Description:
- This protein has 24 helices and 30 strands.
- It is α/β, with parallel strands linked by helices.
- The protein folds into 3 domains: 66-129 and 404-560, Rossmann fold; 143-379, Dimethylsulfoxide Reductase, domain 2, CATH 3.40.228.10; 604-730, Beta Barrel (Barwin-like endoglucanases).
- The strands form 7 sheets. Strands 5-4-20-19-18-6-7-17 form an 8-stranded mixed beta sheet. It has a 6-stranded mixed barrel with strand order 24-28-25-27-26-30. A 4-stranded parallel beta sheet has the order 10-9-8-16, with helices on both faces.
- Helix 18 (464-467) links the parallel strand 19 and strand 20.
- The N and C termini lie far apart (57 Å).
Amino acid sequence: MARTMIRTVCGLPDYMRCGLTVEVEDGAITRISPGDFPDPADRGICLKALATREMVYHPDRLKHPLKRAGERGENKWQRVSWDEALTVIAAQLQDIGRRYGPNAVAWMISVMPNLAGGGYSRLVSLTEGTVVDWWGCGDAAGPCADIATFGHMMGSVHLLSDPNPRFVVVWGYNPAETNYDHMRKIVRARKKGAKVVVIDPRFTATAAHADEHIALRPGTDGSLALGMINVILQEGYRDKRFIAENTVGPLLVRQDNGLFLRESEVMPGGRPDALMIMDEYSGRRQVAGTPQAKPAVNGSFSISGIDCEPAFQLLSDMVREYTPEKVSQITDVPADVVRRLAVSYGSRKPASIFRGWGMQRTFHGDLACRAINTLAAITGNLNLDRPSTFVLNSRQFLLPGAPANILPVMLLYDAITKSQPHNVKAVWCSGHDFVNQMPNMNRVNKELLRHLELVVVCDLFMTPSARHADYVLPTASFYECTDLCMASFYHNYLQLQQKAIEPLHECKSDFQIAAALGKKMGLDEYFNKTEEQYIEELLASGHPTMEGISLARLKEGPVMARSLDRPLQFRTPTGLIEFYVERLKKFGQELPIYLEPVESTRSDKARSYPLSLLTTHSRYRIHSSLANIPSLLRQEPEPTLEISPADARPRDIMDGDMVRVFNGRGQVRLKARLSHRIKPGVTNVTQGWWPHQYLQGHHNELTHESVNPVQQFIMSPNAAFYDVLVQVEKVLE
């Protein structure tokens, strides 16, 4: 038998881009193991990646293009050829573009490698269509907070201040099940003596490896962070030098309008873009950035008749009300725990926060993340080293025509049903199971789909979204195509995703599908190269980070990014870390204030629906991907409702009983799983299950699509999946 070993990259939609070594015999995958990296510590593999061989050879893989033969969702199909499918689809897309405008064609693309997503990007650019920004389907509030605070996305990277921290906070995050790279770092830090604290309403697998678990009320993370800032200021643990040099703390804010004081407002001929500080040495006003000035971060001043205070003073005044006792009332965390947590974080430096996206999935999740960012900034627990990266020749490849029109996914509802902000009449979906994963499934099924003239889904399986499509196109798995993988959120390697096997059945890669469709639309000249030729084009940027990197070099193995030894630049309007965000003054959120969840357990609505519902990630799926893999289903065979015995007892619910979870939007029926590991008042269903795996309904019938205007102003509104109230009752047979 002919046996080869191929080094490739995991293409699962967690975007960790772990390296894989694939053993192939006679054209079939026989074994999957971790791929080597220059740093052996980056070598690893998860249970989900090990299960991908089953994904490739699953009997339910889509094998050829399908055209709807019945009503949408009826699951009646007619087999068609690729030529027929793409000819008709191309004609319909062009017709919709002519009748409603090119923006009426929306592309919902979640495939990330450069060729897979880039092929569609070229199409959108050349046809002036609309790109649906899918970050808002659960992952936009944290990035909104980062953009407001730092000017760009940071994730956890820069809240990890040191490779050897003395204190670690794992906040709204369960890396033991979702990010093994971060979990290894946490375990290593603890072995070296760091204290590890996990903040989560559930006692997770990560909490089992911690020194302390803090169970707070869902949606109150921002209050806890503000309480910690209060204690840190009271106890003197702030880093005044870091605040003065790197944040807006010294910038003077006018008391009359809440805007930064500008030189043009206090000096004839002054510059309107020059911001003012007060110099502690001279007691005089100065322009921010003046050499040798020692900026004051506290106090109250009158300059040319204008009363003003440093931004840090305003933060200090705001957090003063968040005493440990008040925070305890809000969060259910004991006051002494709030105080101890704050002192440990402020005094045991270097301290790191592994900030997950759990707390951002509430309506005001951006405020919570901003408060945590502020906590790190005022203690100096931020890494200001510039991250290593690669600069590809991407713009020419991705945008050969016009810049794409961007539509946040949470605005897709009104775009389809109300033509606001513009008409959307066709949706092309690849890599995103929008019917299953978007909030308020009933509205998706009953309103969105019936307003669309064309729905095309590209996938490996007949997903819930595919069932509601007009055309379903079978895509190749990442083992069946070549692509280029950039550094992920978790490592800094450039890797070649090498094709391990030929595409099965009639499947095509996403790039091949985009290229074939482009040719049907008369765009042949933009899709006239092979995958490897386009990869060479992407690599040829001429940037110093790409020196010595070629396709031939990447075939030998991954390349680690080199640092350019330049300091991190904050792309905020001030060029500084902004815990005071001037442009959010009109929303009353210039500071990271605390606001109650919109579906709070302390609201009037809680009288009817008294329990919070979380829909957390499972170790056995990535969103809805792998929900049909036999080996993983043996580990978690069906969806269950995690509920505390304290909440189950008055409802006469026993472990394994059938329950109905409901609110005013919908319902779902499933079995109850009693657990002491979840906080009373909180329930949980792991997300990603398909509708047929429930006895009735679906967990996303319970969620809502409320739009946060502040998040929309910054970047993109986020789905508040964890800001949901429900009632639970036992189902009597």
